[in-house]
Amino acid sequence: MLRTPRVELRWPALAGLDALAALAEEGIHDPGVQPFSEPWTDAPPADRARSTLQYHWRLWGLWRPDNWRLGLVTVADGTVTGMQEVAGRDFAVLREVDTGSWLGRRFQRQGIGTHMRAAVLALAFEGLGAQYATTEAFGDNLASRGVSRKLGYAEDGRNRLAVRGQPVQAIRFRLDRAAWEAHRTVPVEIFRSSAWRRACRASVWHHDSSGPASPGPPVSYA
């Protein structure tokens, strides 16, 4: 579990997933826009709820040390408000993670997104010894871009994607360790179970039994 003064990010138990699915069913964004490269929210409400459950179950089943995605539910004041994901491919070699998230519409524009991202960045840089974090947002997604800039990311190029049958430009952002340290304003506590510690160790060390030369600072458990 990760905790900031505003939110907790938790491994999604079944009750948490049910609440997250209900939140997706309510709606995440104005139907006139599409902030996701995979337009899963264009589906009818019941299908959005079902796909939310299926997505997290799929993450559990596909977890590998060299290619993992950790999807966490975000809880504010005891209520599930959205989800935050952090992922690593060949992390033991590249020391790089990618992040993505969404919030239910009634929880947006309240500063929750900043705390969510700050929490997983602390896990990545402090807990796992990452050197870089990346993310991506469409040009009209001002909220996501604002969070990235607030936390120290720099623009890192453009991608062109086909969304709803139209070309859309996405902006890439990259955050290095020095910029993360310079922009840390949200305190984060990291609580981890023994199972999660084993998964982290496998992801960080799996390419070489002797371990990487610079594993990064040890995590401080609260």
Could you describe the 3D structure shown?
This protein is α+β, with helices and mostly antiparallel strands and 222 residues long. It has seven helices and nine strands. A nine-stranded mixed beta sheet has the order 7-8-6-5-4-3-2-1-9, with helices on both faces. β5, α4 (112-127) and β6 (132-138) form a beta-alpha-beta unit. α1 packs antiparallel against α2. The protein is globular and about 40 Å long. The model is unreliable at 207-222 (pLDDT under 50).
Strand content: 25-35%
How many strands appear in the DSSP assignment? 9
Order of helices and strands: EEHHEEHEHEHEEHEH
Which structural class matches the secondary elements? alpha+beta
| Biggest beta sheet attributes | 9 strands, mixed
**Given the structure, what is the number of helices?**
7
Pick out the low-confidence regions: 207-222
Mean pLDDT score, rounded? 86
- What is the straight-line distance between the termini? 10 Å
Strand order of the largest sheet: 7-8-6-5-4-3-2-1-9
Fraction of residues in helix: 25-40%
Give the overall silhouette.
Answer: globular
Determine Rg (CA atoms, Å).
17 Å
Descriptors:
9 strands, 35% helix, nine-stranded mixed β-sheet, alpha+beta
